[in-house]
Amino acid sequence: MSISNAPKAPHFNVTSPAQYVVHIEINRPDKLNAFYDPMWHELKALIDFFSHDPETRAIVISGAGDRAFTAGLDVQAASNPETSALSSKQQSDPSRRATTLRRHILELQDVISSVARCEKPTIACMHGYAYGLAVDLSSACDIRLCAPDTKFCIKEVDIGLAADVGTLSRLPKVVGLTSWCKEVTLSARPFGAEEALHNNFVSRVVPGSKKDLLEAGVELAKYIASKSPVAVQGTKNILDAAYARSVEDNLNYTAVWNAAMLQSSDTERAMLSGLKKRTPTFEKL
């Protein structure tokens, strides 16, 4: 793997638990893995690196410690008057303050969007507290698994703002703009793993401990990584493109995409392996 060449990220543990699989673990357990300024930049740098890394075919994202995937934004750090973008000390003029805030919000949005843009499939493995930013981050992932003890909350209404880095844009696409979606976003009430499963936010509640959850996440990532990377990355790209397109437009996009990608040797290898009943191997992409 190319982990040794990955950007330095002191607040994340980066490992390779299986061939072609990268595990990015949020590593601030003493603060319930809550995010403050350096962590945003570190996460984007890691995702951008592994998105283009030919040794990587699937990414698992989890949180260190037993208590939380992430409790969201580190409110104490964010409210520091010396560094906060909300501080009146930074700008006194309302228009200039608004410009500074807009730039700051767009910068944070781009971190979460980098996860959604990642060329490789991403799997969020959530346990414990999964509040605020946890929903932003996991909504940008392709697949969400959780432990039975997971406690979700779209917390932003309780701290006086509309969620602004992804949840309100992506959650309705994940679960549908349903009564339930509006209930949990407008009320900021916590909800559990089974409710998340019932409303299609997670694809699976993994029985057992956090260890069992991570094993399930890595096993799924290994299985995806065993497939043709041309086929997997193409499938992810076309599915994501379908969000903003009509069926007809996306069929045309698919035809253009596959006109190039069907020329890959992966197609022939996959077909022959089925006929000869053997496991295919694929070149890096």
UniProtKB/TrEMBL annotation:
The keyword Lipid metabolism applies. Pathway: Lipid metabolism; fatty acid beta-oxidation. It holds the Pfam family ECH_1. Coiled coil: none annotated. Keywords: Fatty acid metabolism, Isomerase, Lipid metabolism. The keyword Zinc does not apply. It comes from the Eukaryota. Belongs to the enoyl-CoA hydratase/isomerase family. This is Enoyl-CoA hydratase.
